[in-house]
Write a structure and sequence with these properties.
With 515 residues, the protein is an alpha+beta fold. The protein is built from 15 helices and 16 strands. The strands form 4 sheets. Strands 4-5-6-1-14-13 form a 6-stranded mixed β-sheet, with helices on both faces. Strands 7-16-15-12-8-11 form a 6-stranded mixed β-sheet, sandwiched between helices. The longest helix has 26 residues, at 180-205. The protein is globular, with a radius of gyration of 27 Å.
């Protein structure tokens, strides 16, 4: 994880949580008190990374004897009017900056001055912290279902003494001697660290050094996206983000009408949005054009390492049929591609994920990104994470959270990522793109909204065309006969029968919806 963290590809996941301050208000001191109360549940948030001399073993976590909570919890404010565009600009600049690797690997910004009187918490958490076993995201333990939860009783924290260099070297040698597999893992870790250093130097110096850095990066990360992928290119040091919100009821209506899952609908919406966006950019799409998305999925493994979430996250490559012009056919094709995962017996249901204590989406998004950074991964065009959250309001020290947008990091040569979280009856989408390569990210956001409406329309059309499920009453049948006779009177004057025209129209609409 640390080797992949460079100036152009920082290794942290971001979240933008928006809150209603309520009548009691919310300030920096209240946030500090809340984090101080909960931070003992996430010990890595008070620890820093200590390398082992000569890289004989993987770095170790040690308590930060100079830990300063106010360094990690920062305060900012938007200029007037404090609208969503200003928040997006602020978030893009914050996410572009690397975390200080000599300190605990996280930051939270309290953003005040929003035009509706609310505030936002913008968090950055390094992937090295969140593994689902020893560490979860701080956001998972900050939120409560109770409006006024009691503070937990905490004891004063004292950092443990840091081990000396000789202790670290001796421990690494002893570990390698006792376990040959561990020795190989340590050797591989040293090689990975060297590649990471070469990659970072290549980014800094450019030229021949830059080419060598790219070779090191390719060896470290595995395959890049195809050179002809519209989502591939050189990643800069700057980011652009966009945030959008859609009612969850719309996704559920589409799911119910077409008998697919909400996850299928989400992926179909993204496919449709990407299709429209690529066409606005002048991309040439044929009916067979596709993109490959890496979509991490929660699974259960009998022999897997136990986690605090009750499941593991595994990579899943998903074909997105962006060349298909029919919205309903895109949905069917996406659902067919996910069918094998659903029938594997390993899939974890959305309700199981949404019932995890606290606000698990922040942890699950980070685990999804970790999966995408595996050294030997297959080629893909875009990373997409979709995590269902609790469908009840959550609170941070009495302030109600009204929105939560996940923002995923960019890896080398990948210009766009999409994170999706459902929470309290809404679906929140976070788009992260390279600032210079994707200047029209707002167009993609609008295309995604249009893609939702396109599928909503297919559900409405299907409901209209569906035959009644119960027998009509005698009075209703008599009324229908009279109505049909009345319609036949008029058309004869113009030589056409509206009943036939209506029937043909209905069948034609049915073919368009199904095809």
């Amino acid at each position: 994880m640390l080797a992949l963290d460079t100036v152009r590809t920082p290794g942290h996941v971001g979240t933008v949580d928006v809150f209603d301050a309520g009548t009691e208000g919310f300030d920096y001191e209240r946030l500090i008190a809340l984090i101080r109360d909960r931070i003992e549940f996430v010990p890595l948030y008070r620890q820093r990374v200590r390398p082992v001399p000569a890289r004989l073993a993987a770095p170790v976590w040690v308590d930060d004897e100079n830990f300063d909570l106010t360094f990690h919890v920062r305060r900012s404010a938007l200029p007037r009017p404090g609208n969503l565009d200003q928040l997006r600009e602020f978030v893009g600049r914050v996410l572009a900056r690397r975390l200080d690797l000599s300190r605990p690997l996280w930051e939270i910004y309290l953003v005040e001055g929003m035009e509706d009187g609310g505030f936002a918490l913008v968090s950055k958490t390094h992937l090295a912290i969140v593994d689902g076993v020893d560490g979860v995201d701080l956001g998972q333990v900050l939120l409560d279902a109770d409006h006024r939860p009691p503070l937990t009783s905490t004891t004063a924290w004292e950092p443990r003494p840091e081990p000396g260099s000789l202790d670290l070297v001796g421990g690494a040698l002893w570990e390698s001697a006792q376990d040959p597999a561990k020795a190989f893992e340590n050797l591989r870790g040293a090689f990975t660290s060297a590649l990471g250093m070469a990659m970072a130097i290549g980014e800094a110096v450019g030229g021949i050094g830059g080419a060598l850095g790219e070779l090191a990066g390719d060896a470290l990360r595995g395959k890049r996206p195809a050179s002809d992928s519209p989502l591939a290119g050189d990643v800069s040091e700057q980011r652009r983000v966009d945030l959008l919100q859609v009612p969850l009821a719309q996704f559920k209506a589409i799911r119910q009408e077409h008998d697919h899952t909400v996850n299928d609908v989400v992926l179909a919406v993204i496919t449709g949005g990407l299709r429209s966006w690529l066409l606005t950019r002048g991309e040439s799409l044929s009916s067979s054009s596709t993109l490959t998305a890496l979509v991490p999925m929660s699974v259960t493994e009998d022999d897997g390492e136990p986690t605090s979430l009750g499941s593991q996250v595994a990579p899943h490559l998903q074909t997105l049929p962006v060349g298909e012009p029919n919205a309903l056919m895109r949905l069917h094709q996406v659902a067919y591609a996910t069918k094998a995962h659903k029938e594997s017996g390993r899939a974890v249901g959305a309700r199981s994920l949404s019932d995890i204590a606290g606000f698990a989406p922040s942890t699950l998004h980070a685990l999804g990104v970790r999966v995408s950074t595996e050294v030997l991964r297959k080629q893909h065009d875009i990373l997409i994470t979709n995590v269902p959250g609790p469908q009840v309001p959550l609170y941070a020290a009495g302030a109600r959270m009204v929105a939560s947008y996940p923002l995923l990091p960019l890896s080398a040569a990948h210009l766009l990522t999409i994170g999706v979280t459902s929470y309290d009856g809404e679906v929140f989408v976070g788009l992260t793109g390279d600032r210079y390569a994707i200047r029209d990210l707002h167009v993609l956001a609008q295309c995604l909204i249009d893609a939702v409406q396109e599928l909503v329309d297919t559900a409405a059309d299907a409901a209209t065309l569906r035959q009644p499920t119960r027998k009509a009453s005698p009075a209703a049948r008599r009324a229908a006969v009279k109505k049909a006779a009345a319609k036949q009177e008029g058309p004869r004057r113009i030589g056409r029968r509206p009943t036939n025209r209506q029937g043909l129209g209905g069948r034609e609409r049915g073919r368009r919806a199904e095809g």
